[in-house]
Amino acid sequence: MNAAILKGKVTGVGTGPGDPELLTLKAVRAINEADVIAFFCKKGSSGNGRAIVETHMRPGTLELPLVYPVTVETQKDEAGYKGPIADFFDRSAEDIAALLDAGKNVVVLSEGDPLFYGSYMHLHVRLQNRYQAEVVAGITAMSGCWSMTGLPLVQGDDILSVLPGTLSEEKLAERLANTDGAVIMKVGRNLPKIRRALASAGKLSDALYVERGTMANGAAAKLEERDESPAPYFSIVLVPGWKTRPGDVR
After folding, report:
1. Does the pLDDT at position 249 exceed 80?
2. CB atoms within 10 A of CB 129
3. pLDDT of 198-219, one tens digit each?
4. 170 to each of 13, 111, 228, how far by Cα in Å?
5. Using N-to-C axis directions, what is the helix angle for 79-101 and 120-127, rounded to 10°?
6. What pTM does this model have?
């Protein structure tokens, strides 16, 4: 028998935005059938993705924590971030490759959707040409948040822009001024800058701040009413683009 046939398969599984009931049926099946569950986490934590899927893991399933060497304490453009994080993805891919070579089927958990700002994509591009690789789509944080709050975001010919809060204030303001609706991710310590950019674009009064969307402790408020303290990791800003929606009292 061809030795390649004996190799395992890697599957990037989207765990959704936080509510375990928002896992897809396909994700649940992949998790339940996996030989190994790999998940990204910070040191001393098992990560949110692992907590979401816990009830669907078979007893005795092997676990592979992928522990980030650096997180938000280092700026993404600094050499102290880029070097260690690239080495981390290289090493993680080879750890998974060793399991695949042993015939194990490996599921890699990814909060939200694996190919939408997800860490799994860095493993996928390193492994997809050498092994069977599949991606199971997940509900994104932004769709979970606008659904949780009941906020219609865009319709008809509205343009939606998805922006990382790590952009410069000037670039954020420029992008916001040239779109109808917007989703701003990677909020965290960038919240004051995001607020100023929205004000410059004339859209601060419409912006909605959501933290821990779809989770049990989730909350939402108008951004202009939120204080200046750093936002938690699971936070997002929504700017609706539907300006003529019925019942709008703005």
Report:
1. no
2. 7
3. 999 999 999 999 999 999 999 9
4. 35, 29, 19
5. 60
6. 0.89
